[in-house]
Amino acid sequence: MCRRRISPRRGFWTFPSGFLECGESGGEGARREVLEETRAEVHIEGLLCVIDVPQISEVHLVYRGTLRSLALAPTEESSEVTLMAEAEIPWDDLAFTSIGESLRRYFEDRRQKQKAVHTLDLRTAPPGENRDELAPSVCGASR
Amino acid sequence: MCRRRISPRRGFWTFPSGFLECGESGGEGARREVLEETRAEVHIEGLLCVIDVPQISEVHLVYRGTLRSLALAPTEESSEVTLMAEAEIPWDDLAFTSIGESLRRYFEDRRQKQKAVHTLDLRTAPPGENRDELAPSVCGASR
């Protein structure tokens, strides 16, 4: 988990995430973001969530992975980088709705000993969450 | 299934597909494309495939759905629109690699009486397929 050093949602917690670059697969982008934001090398296992966020014209692809080493470090984008057990997740201080929704599904799958691909649409998410704080997309859709 | 009236791959067969518009969820985009290309109204059930096509900087989201009516008709984009049984699929005349890969998984799931979400990366697809014929993406990646 990373504490964001940058806007939006500076100071709040997230797992590594970002925009896909041209020529990347989703898994390659996920691996690159982990490296950029935590210095860690990961092996990407597969999709955990496909999350529609139409209010900001985004689709979030969230992946499961395993760390290849424990060499984590703060970066330009992350003021703190740390491993957390489920009980340590700062649920009230997560940066974006999709982070919490993904973590909940990850832990629930682990309890059920399954690896499902979950789909959800954040426009229908319960109100009162952080979804209005998400970064505006390249489409320029209004918040 | 639709016979393409437009480039690329004019004259070849596809199911309805296209680019997501701003403000749409993936399922809403799928429903819109079916309407635009076949005049049919569908209910979207859920994801069938998430297909990385990094060589053209695309990710294809493919959905299962059920027709709300049989009112199909040719359109500006489709010179023929028709329902096909599995045995009628023109496997050698499909427009794009991801169409055949998705249809194969759909029919296999139906035989297995399951509804899985499949992931694949077309960069690692077997050679000799139609992948070089895919439309260039908005990133301007070369073919």
Question: Layout of SSEs?
Answer:
2 copies of one chain form a homodimer.
Chain A: E1 2-4, E2 13-14, H1 26-38, E3 42-53, E4 58-67, E5 78-81, H2 97-112, E6 118-121
Parallel strand pairs in A: 3-6
Antiparallel strand pairs in A: 1-2, 1-5, 3-4
Q: What's the gist of this structure?
A:
The first copy, chain A, is α+β, with helices and mostly antiparallel strands. Chain A contains two helices and six strands; from the N terminus they run ββαβββαβ.
What does this structure look like?
The structure is a homodimer of 143-residue chains. Chain A has helices at 26-38, 97-112, and strands at 2-4, 13-14, 42-53, 58-67, 78-81, 118-121. The relative contact order of chain A is 0.23. With 143 residues, chain A is α+β, with helices and mostly antiparallel strands. Residues 130-134 of chain A have low confidence and may be disordered. In chain A, 20% of the residues lie in helices and 24% in strands. In chain A, the strands form 2 sheets. Chain A has a 3-stranded antiparallel sheet with strand order 2-1-5, with no helix packed on it. In chain A, strands 4-3-6 form a 3-stranded mixed sheet. Chain A has 2 helices and 6 strands, in the order ββαβββαβ. Chain A binds chain B through residues 20, 22-28, 46-47, 50, 52, 54-55, 57, 59, 61, 117, 119, 121, 123, 137, 139-141, and chain B through 20, 22-28, 46-47, 50, 52, 54-55, 57, 59, 61, 117, 119, 121, 123, 137, 139-141.
Distance between the termini of chain A: 26 Å
What assembly state would you assign to the polypeptide chains in this entry? Answer: homodimer
Level of helix content of chain A? 10-25%
Largest interface: A-B, 25 and 25 residues
Low-confidence stretches of chain A: 130-134
Number of strands of chain A: 6
Strand order of the largest sheet of chain A: 2-1-5
Could you report the average pLDDT of chain A, rounded to the nearest whole number? 90
- Shape of chain A, please? globular
Task: Return the structural class of chain A.
Answer: alpha+beta
Order of helices and strands of chain A: EEHEEEHE
Strand content of chain A: 15-25%
Biggest sheet features of chain A: 3 strands, antiparallel
Integer-rounded radius of gyration of chain A:
15 Å
Tell me the number of helical segments of chain A per DSSP (H or I, 4 or more residues long). 2
